[in-house]
Amino acid sequence: MAAPLGRSDGLALNELLEEFSRAQYRAKESGPKVEKIEKRCLELFGKDYCYSLIQNLNGELCGHYPRQIVVLEYESTEQEKDMFESTVQVSRLQDLVNRSKMARCRGRFVCPVILFKGKHICRSATLAGWGELYGRTGYNYIFSGGSDDAWADTEEIAEDSASVRNGDSQLFDKVRGHDIKLLRYLSVRYICDLMVENKKVKFGLNVTSSEKVDKAQRYADFTLLSIPYPGCEFFKDYKDRDYSAEGLIFNWKQDYVDAPLSIPVSLTRSLNIDWGEYQCWDLVKQTQNYLKLLIHIVNSDDDSGLLVHCISGWDRTPLFVSLLRLSLWADGLIHSSLEPAEILYLTVAYDWFFFGHMLADRLSKGEEIFFFCFNFLKHITSEEFSACGRKARKSSQPRESGFMLEDFCALKRKDRGSTTSLSSDFSLVAEDSPGVAAGSFNYETVEQSAGAQTQAAWRKTCTSSPQTVLWSRPQQLEERLLYPGVTEAKSSSSSSSNHSDNFLRVGSSPLEVPQRSLPGQTERESRLEAVRSILLTAYSNTIGLKSVSSSPSGAISGLLEQFARGVGLRGASAIV
């Protein structure tokens, strides 16, 4: 099991989240902070892999891709090198990237990001539509003075554009042909499309396309999977329900939703999932089943790679790329030497930040898909999500340190502070009462509240499900034994401060809390819970959670809001 989270690891993650939430990353606008994050990512990749780099220092290839794109070649151990080594040569790959980048939305070309059993797991945006493709080729031609190193055939493209306007498909043949060459060079066979639309339409125009509706069927040789998944806008509903994903079902009857789920039968036989019910799944079940499918694909016996994409490739795509990376890491199959804090840093920085996720914009709109990703880890701890064939090993080690919402909910009232003062560190809007607990608390977010009477009423009202939180704590006395060193939190001097040192402290580290030992956990469970715990700590310490209402009638809303204010993470009116 991993060593406890150190102060330096916690501070590094905090700094990363602060930079991430400030503004969208742009390759050409990097500074010392970005370079520091970039250097740390390369160090973490280098602990387990030999790799090459594709240079994108000023965003020449793509403005919202890493300045140094990592191409993993093989694991550092000689045994793994002999068994699973990528056949990709970076010089050839860079040439294909230069030629193919026009084929996809925003120039977000197919990029390998995970190496598993010698297979490349890739990400990208969807295919560019006629309007974007024609507009960008014309723009590049004009502003390059008639030549463009990133697109060697600009003059030919300009000539083909007239043909496109007359209904000819030569332009698409050219750019999508290069895209297909890149996919084949990376040995990609499976393409998983997360779009709920066949084509993205704005102002009556098709602004993007997708492989599944390519009229010339250029992608017919690939195994195409249409697995429609709600866009980032849907995650405002997740936030508005006090970060509860259970019972949250997407409305599939909306006019723009026209992409049905389509998966080859050969990939679904062994999964024991009723795919015909996908429109009835809540967000938890849908994400679980899609992740099972992706794990099944990459864990198959063939040597074929996988491409995952949505529209722009910076919301839903990093969600599933990150979950895949963390799930395979938890099984000990990739990044085997990284500790929980290290793999968390790597996936936040590389999979989300450096590939252009607009965290600041999403937070301002309440579209918290980033937070959902890591909070969702509690739903994939079981062995049904494991890519290992071996029996799961049990862990008798304490879980990783970290302050969790469940931890806060388990504290006695005197440890939380006053229920009336807004400046007290751990205030609650609602008193402990069976009626409030039964009517307002959500079981996904808070499994136990603070009083035996409330717990009894809660259990009578809510039934447990496989997707609920892992921790089960029947008695407060047990909590006090598990937390012998918890001290009372001091009152915050101001409820308007976004950052404060008045975080619950035990020992010398501001991020350290007493550890719990759960001897029945598998190693996979303990690893994923450690990652989730560390992220929740850092997220609460830098960004915070914003609930919809802090009125007495919304007990969980008040709990989240007062938790954020109480530890000095956010003022009364701040969103992030």
From TrEMBL:
PROSITE patterns: TYR_PHOSPHATASE_1 (PS00383). Residues 488-525 are annotated as: Disordered. SUPFAM superfamilies: (Phosphotyrosine protein) phosphatases II. CDD domains: PH-GRAM_MTMR14. One of its GO terms (molecular function) is phosphatidylinositol-3-phosphate phosphatase activity. This is Myotubularin-related protein 14 isoform X4. It comes from Microcaecilia unicolor.
